[in-house]
Amino acid sequence: MIKKRVGNFLTFFCFFLSFQCLIAQGNQENKRLLSKLLPEIQKRYDVVFSYVDNTLDTVLVTPIKKTISLRDLLNGFESETNLRFTIINKRYIAITVFKDQIQELDEVYLTEYIASGISTNRTGQITVKPKNFSILPGVTEPDVLLTIQALPGISSVNETVSNINIRGGTNDQNILLWDDIKMYQSGHFFGLISAFNPYFLKKVTVTKNGTSAQHGDGVSGMIQMDLDQHVNDSLIAGAGMNFIHVDGFAKVQLNKKMEVQVSARRSITDVFETPTYAIYFDRIFQDTDITNNNQDTNSTTTTNRDFYFYDMSTKFIYDISKTDNLQFSFLNIFNDLSYTEEATLNNRRQAVNSGITQRNLATGLTYNREWNPAFSTQVQLYTSNYNLEATNFNITDNQRLFQENDLADSAIRLHTNYRIDENFTLETGYQFSEIGITNIQDVSNPQFRSERKDVMRTHALYSEVHYFSDSYRTMLTFGIRGNRYGKIDKFRFEPRLNFRQQFSDYFSVLVLGEFKSQAISQVIDLQNDFLGIEKRRWTLANGTSVPLIESKQASVGVQYNKNNLLITAEAYIKEVDGITTRSQGFQNQFQFVNAVGSYKTYGIDVLFNKKWRDLNTWLSYSVSKNEYKFTSLNSGNPFPNNIDITHNFTLGATYSWKNFEFSLGTNYRSGIPNTTVGTPNLTNGEINYNAPNAANLEDYFRTDFSATYRLTLSKKKKIYSKIGLSIWNIFDQQNVLNEYYNLDNEVVSQIQNRALGITPNLSFRLDF
Description:
CATH architecture of the largest domain: Beta Barrel
Shape: globular
Structural class: mainly beta
Distance between the termini: 35 Å
Number of helices: 8
Number of domains: 2
CATH superfamily of the largest domain: TonB-dependent receptor, beta-barrel domain
Largest sheet: 22 strands, antiparallel, barrel
Strand content: over 45%
Low-confidence stretches: 8-29, 102-108
Radius of gyration: 26 Å
Helix content: under 10%
């Protein structure tokens, strides 16, 4: 078995090294992509560019001279490209195409937000561009779901990428889109690593409020991962390796109109057991069947633990003509864990195999048509299938438990974009989706089988208008979305608002609001479901015990940006109704109660970001209050949310010196609520709990460090390498992520789940 795995691994790694052979065939001119020069220009001249991303995808220009004026520089760019650079005021410059002045301007500010590759835009969204990503404390690679946790208002109470909490919401209340396809699995290693290869992505957009009307679901937030939409002008490839996995990607132009993009990543954990893997394993599998079996009276031991993961993605792009574009996308995410349990019963040594697999398979087809410079359409079809299976053997009871959670999502979307004039744009569309969820539970002794399948069909119509003033100081987007949920026979009307007013070159105000709903959520039946590892399962609303989740949110923010100082502050209030106790993961007196309620959260997100040449510093702070209200629980009185974090504070800095880059940061947050046990511990054979979530865990504190060194291997062939070192939790702080109580033989025991201790990682990367 090991020899086979080693052979597969070597084949996989040789595939990455073969990229170098492709590079030798390229012959690049002595020019640079304009998109990569813009950050340098902005820093030098203290200006900000606005443009449509696709406009600069393939634009090459002559490198700038240090002594040239800004106006001469822009004139030079105009003379060698098909672009027009319009100076709106002293600081803002619009980039458009000469053949289309009607072209809509992008709303992204290219100024750095915390780190290179992260930016904020005029609509309050955060954009991460992995190819421009520099470094963050404890992170040398652009793991997008880990990177966005550095932003105010976004955290993970259990320190994973598969449980991202946006303004007090649970992870299943986020909509996750990969190339506009809904995804239902987000993590490898059951949550410690993002399941999406960041080097294959073009950009990632995070929306906390004011979502476009064309997007449904995600009552807490949206994470949108976009791939390239048009053919690149040259080969782009890369390969890398760290203490957890090896990966590679290539974007190969077949001709001027067609391109194939491939990406693959696989763990090395079943071939080489690194120190990082050992720490990850102990962290993610603590208090699960894998570790708990060692504690029973029959001396059950776990051996032959075999774990691996991989993801593979492909995209085919066909620019049929200047007005027609066809795209096909494919993604496969896979996790697998198997192990052997051994025990001695009746003087006989017995062994059984248990395990769990998790997969998300997605395909999508998109056709874009530009009928004229003012009107375009898009048609998209996709399928996304999620599957979670677990087989758990109990040697003592001679019992086998099989569990499965299967989800199939198919959808079609029609979208139109009409530019009325230079100030107004109208977008409309229709979406249809069908989601089927099957839950299976099969027990061998005594024999029992339960299988249930539910289907939800949803129709949605939406329309929104965008207004841009001539000076671009005023921007308004107002949208309306109507969702018709077939199974529960319910219609939901959802207005959306996004308004920005710039009062000076440096100061602006942002007002956002939205109504949203979703018919799908994750629930926990028992804490030891699916081996206690991935215990959440997807389920559909039924209108009674699992209602439609509905939310409304409003926020007001300000932004100040001058002299490399960025200050943002946003106050918000959000109410979410239709949640269930099963979706919140209670481990107290409400663990086996099925009740319906709501939560309300409000707070302020603040960011200070200051740059001094090669030094970049930031401070982010969030203060919030998050409370449940279940009319049938706690006498109907509100009580703290399981993921209520009153204070969340991050301080960090990045310093560049020659080819080196260093980053150091500290994260502090208040301890999450927990429920303590009263005296006596037992009442009528049950744990005697105190008031729900009336206490708090100890505060969370962590300091991280990372460093990278960049080396140019070949300027002519443009081959670069990067070596990275990261240390997570350098002071080895013993943070408690969760605390609860178990009852065993009339004995109440306290159980604590701890965060990662000091965790080093080393990475090496080649980019072509």
